[in-house]
Amino acid sequence: MKYLLTAIVALCLLVCVPSAASAKEDKLWSKGETIITATICMSEESILKIVKADTISEEEVLARMYALTRLSHCVSLPTPLPFYVLELLVEYRDFRQIDTVVLSVAKVDKPNRHVGFVLAEGKYGKDKGI
Known about the structure:
Elements: H1 2-16, H2 18-21, E1 28-29, E2 34-41, H3 44-54, H4 58-70, E3 74-93, E4 99-107, E5 114-121, E6 123-124
Parallel strand pairs: 1-6
Antiparallel strand pairs: 2-3, 3-4, 4-5
Helix pairs in contact: 1-4, 3-4
């Protein structure tokens, strides 16, 4: 029960708190920008499972994130941390019909080394470069 509560709180940060997705509805993401997030998925396969759930409902997203975090395919950080945007994986509309993107990200201290994927509201635009 303790783990379920922890996962639900972490997932609510990802879905509900603006700093978890660092975006406004009209946000245009590009390479080199900084995104602040508390949840990262390591593989393309795991983030795409979350994308599929995100097209269904919030409950599906929370359940999928919990399962993938428990299986260590995604990581829930204790506090939101900054990451650099490297590139776009996919753009889609979530269950609320909001434009959403899956971004490949890197650590701030190693800006060219991919570490995982995150979800963010908005669209992907022209690269700024790092």
